[in-house]
Amino acid sequence: MVKFLLSRRANVAACTDGFDNTALPWAAKLNLDNSHKDIIRMLMEHRSDPNHKNVKSLTPFNYIVQLGDLDLVTFFIDEHKADLKKLKPDKSNALAFAAQNEHEQVMDLVLKNEVNINQSCKYQLITLLHHASSVSLLKNVQRLISEGAEVNAEDWREYTPIFNCIIELHVLLAVLPLVFFRVDFGEERKQVIRLLLESGSDVNHNPTFEQTKMTILEYFLS
Q1: How many whole angstroms separate alpha carbon 35 and alpha carbon 153?
Q2: pTM of the full predicted structure?
Q3: CB contact set of 139 (below 8 Å; sequence gap of 6+)
Q4: Are 161 and 133 in contact (CB under 8 A)?
Q5: How far is CA 26 from CA 54, 83, 175, in A?
Q6: Which of 94, 101, 191, 188 lies closest to 140, judged by CA?
Q7: Do 1-83 and 113-222 agree at the fold level?
Q8: Which CATH architecture has domain 113-222?
Q9: Which residue of 40, 126, 143, 156 pairs with 121 in a disulfide if CB–CB is 3.0 to 4.6 A?
Q10: DSSP alpha helices (H): ranges in 120-213?
């Protein structure tokens, strides 16, 4: 159907969802098990812009790094000159997206491009370990910690990464549903929490941003 629409000169630059997204980021977000890889390549053949910014300054390539496999990411780099070193306006780098990618080879690729592993978002202070913990990707969390990521780094709400692993689940489910459709998600989430605790997460930290001011232990018991 997509091929048919493109053959009828469908506008690949059209933005229709209220967030100023074109068809390309939609295809990237729906690319479960490479189901949309051919569609993504087709859109690129018809000059879809991988650097088009939506209202949140996110580009289609950001979503590719966040959800695509290594082959798809390198396709954008080699064939369309996508730049892994380009920062978002909030100072987030490509690793912020790769940290939420279940294809750990993508994060390996980004790390080879000398991206700062402790870079945080300028406005919300979210670190790479916050991102990886939010979606409970054990290998990514392990890699970041082994590279020196700070397990007690605080974001704008004073959340440390372990809070993201426990609390952010329902928030991110609406944003990245495909990330959570992993068969082993529940067990992997437990392993990430255990790893963060074993790596020194402060169990008595209670963010003052929260009205309840609960610690990790109190969240588990509530």
Answers
A1: 36
A2: 0.83
A3: 104
A4: yes
A5: 12, 20, 12
A6: 101
A7: yes
A8: Alpha Horseshoe (1.25)
A9: 126
A10: 128-134, 138-146, 161-167, 169-173, 185-198
Tokens of 30: 């729906």
Q: For the chain, what's the residue count?
A: 222
**25: its two tokens:** 């980021």
pLDDT digits (tens, 9 = 90+) for 72-109: 999 999 999 998 888 777 777 888 889 989 899 999 99
Query: How far is residue 73 from each of residues 21, 108, 146, 221, measured CA to CA in Å?
Result: 19, 12, 24, 42
Query: Alpha-carbon distance 193 to 196, whole Å?
Result: 5
Please report which confidence band the pLDDT of residue 198 belongs to, taking 50, 70 and 90 as the band edges: very high
Q: Given a cut of 70, is residue 179 above it in pLDDT?
A: no
